[in-house]
Amino acid sequence: MNRAKKILKETFGYSDFRHHQSEIVASILKGEDALVLMPTGGGKSLCYQIPSIVRDGVGVVISPLIALMEDQVNALKLLGVSAAYINSTLSASEVESIEQQARCGDLDLLYLSPERLSNEDMQAFLKTIDIALFAIDEAHCVSQWGHDFRPEYQNLSVLSQQFPDVPRVALTATADERVRDEIVQELDLQKARQFISSFDRPNIRYAIEEQDRGKQQLWDFISQNHSDDAGIVYCLSRRKVESVAEFLTAQGRTALPYHAGLSAKVRAKNQNRFLIEEGVIIVATIAFGMGIDKPDVRFVAHFSMPKNIESYYQETGRAGRDGRPANAWMAYNYKDVVMQRQFIRDSEAGDDYKNVLHNKLDALVDLCEQLECRRITLLRYFGEELAEPCGNCDNCLNPPEKIDASTEAQMALSAIYRTEQRFGMMYLIDVLIGNKNEERIKQFKHHQLNVYGIGKNHPKTWWRRLYRQLISLGYIEVDDEFGALKLTEKAKPILKGEEPFYLRDVVKAKNKTAQNDNL
Ligand code: ADP
Ligand code: ZN
């Protein structure tokens, strides 16, 4: 352990280990297996890099992304650590020379893709050298239930079969209990010690609002809170990335696009400017961020809904790595939810897996619509209980108004049922408020229904918000083709009055934020 401490200081330049790093390193040095759960930015790499240097032989690191591998190896080389990677970008002679280095014992770390490791020649080669440890990075990729399943990862069971005496350490930033169990199963880590760090990032302030003013809403957030800070804005599509980057540029900010449709050269250039210049905003699809290590990102804005809570956590986790206050802000659109539900429904996945995806989406929507502390909800998802509300999220700072809208929800659902689930939201609202200008109502004799006009005392916008929340929460489905609203199974208890429904009153909550800002 003394040597490990010395390397931490002299090679990496850090005075102390943090989180569980010290225990993890000690355990691996003893030759034990380990499962490490640490949030993004927590410092997982050192957990296997230091033991690889201290122990005899090469530390073999399995990493899923070529770009990540290359970044890590370059960073290690700069520190004077002997490291290399073998992947498809190398020529046969380059591979040969790295293998030679490993044979002579001149290599401390060797990064491999999981595909490479499945290769029998590679396994035969590994048998001929001294191996310090196997580190399986992004270990959640073995899990079918995880959000990042990679079939190649399932071949990693060869590690325990072929190299039973080499310690294995699996690392991940995203794992609920089920995923954790699967990692243990797949990688044969029953005897491994588990090191679970808290996922809480206390310096990040979470805020989530519904999108009703488009780009202006994003600009309000940025201009009011981050007039010259660096930040990341995530959007779902390339087109949106481009248009948001243009919009922010027009407002006078340096905003650069980043998505898979741009050439590697442009992407590298934009990423570099983000890292080097001050106050640059990167507007990106989710393709951006893996392996980016910029400590002073002051905000992460989601201008589209992320895929699930794991992605949300990982993406927002790129803010405030230096420990100073940072904002994670999201403006979500109920259309994002509708789109994602359709996407899941129409996908090729089996029913079980579709269910998992729907449940994951439900959990995310629940976080968005949440009236209580966001951090409690977020951490609970990762199996962690926070003792009390955090005091550093929008709901803690400006508790939203919680309105009992059980009766109105019943009316809204009933209007769908009475009109035989054949009409869109606008028409249903016209029926509810008894709009005399809507000709079709008489034509269809819907003015004779008992739901006609019973919603008069709320404006159209109010009903729209109610419908949107009912859709987001999965009580109502939107027909792909005609936009007709349809009831789901979940709607029955509300329709029968057996279950209450609470509406999050965003408008009031927003006014409060504005007032507080002026204090
Ligand atoms: P992860 O893989 O968990 O996302 P990294 O291993 O990339 O995290 O580490 C994140 C950042 O924290 C890196 O810049 C790393 O150098 C730094 N870091 C890791 N351990 C320590 C430590 N003990 N003290 C200070 N900084 C550290
Ligand atoms: Zn809170």
TrEMBL record:
<keyword id="KW-0238">DNA-binding</keyword>
<dbReference type="GO" id="GO:0006260">
    <property type="term" value="P:DNA replication"/>
</dbReference>
<dbReference type="GO" id="GO:0043590">
    <property type="term" value="C:bacterial nucleoid"/>
</dbReference>
<keyword id="KW-0234">DNA repair</keyword>
<dbReference type="GO" id="GO:0043138">
    <property type="term" value="F:3'-5' DNA helicase activity"/>
</dbReference>
<keyword id="KW-0067">ATP-binding</keyword>
<feature type="domain" description="Helicase ATP-binding">
    <location>
        <begin position="25"/>
        <end position="193"/>
    </location>
</feature>
<keyword id="KW-0547">Nucleotide-binding</keyword>
<feature type="domain" description="Helicase C-terminal">
    <location>
        <begin position="214"/>
        <end position="372"/>
    </location>
</feature>
<dbReference type="GO" id="GO:0030894">
    <property type="term" value="C:replisome"/>
</dbReference>
<keyword id="KW-0479">Metal-binding</keyword>
<comment type="similarity">
    <text>Belongs to the helicase family. RecQ subfamily.</text>
</comment>
<dbReference type="GO" id="GO:0005737">
    <property type="term" value="C:cytoplasm"/>
</dbReference>
<dbReference type="GO" id="GO:0009432">
    <property type="term" value="P:SOS response"/>
</dbReference>
<keyword id="KW-0233">DNA recombination</keyword>
<dbReference type="GO" id="GO:0016787">
    <property type="term" value="F:hydrolase activity"/>
</dbReference>
<dbReference type="GO" id="GO:0046872">
    <property type="term" value="F:metal ion binding"/>
</dbReference>
<dbReference type="GO" id="GO:0006310">
    <property type="term" value="P:DNA recombination"/>
</dbReference>
<dbReference type="GO" id="GO:0009378">
    <property type="term" value="F:four-way junction helicase activity"/>
</dbReference>
<keyword id="KW-0862">Zinc</keyword>
<keyword id="KW-0378">Hydrolase</keyword>
<protein>
    <recommendedName>
        <fullName>DNA helicase RecQ</fullName>
        <ecNumber>5.6.2.4</ecNumber>
    </recommendedName>
</protein>
<dbReference type="GO" id="GO:0006281">
    <property type="term" value="P:DNA repair"/>
</dbReference>
<dbReference type="GO" id="GO:0005524">
    <property type="term" value="F:ATP binding"/>
</dbReference>
<keyword id="KW-0227">DNA damage</keyword>
<dbReference type="GO" id="GO:0003677">
    <property type="term" value="F:DNA binding"/>
</dbReference>
<keyword id="KW-0347">Helicase</keyword>
<keyword id="KW-0413">Isomerase</keyword>
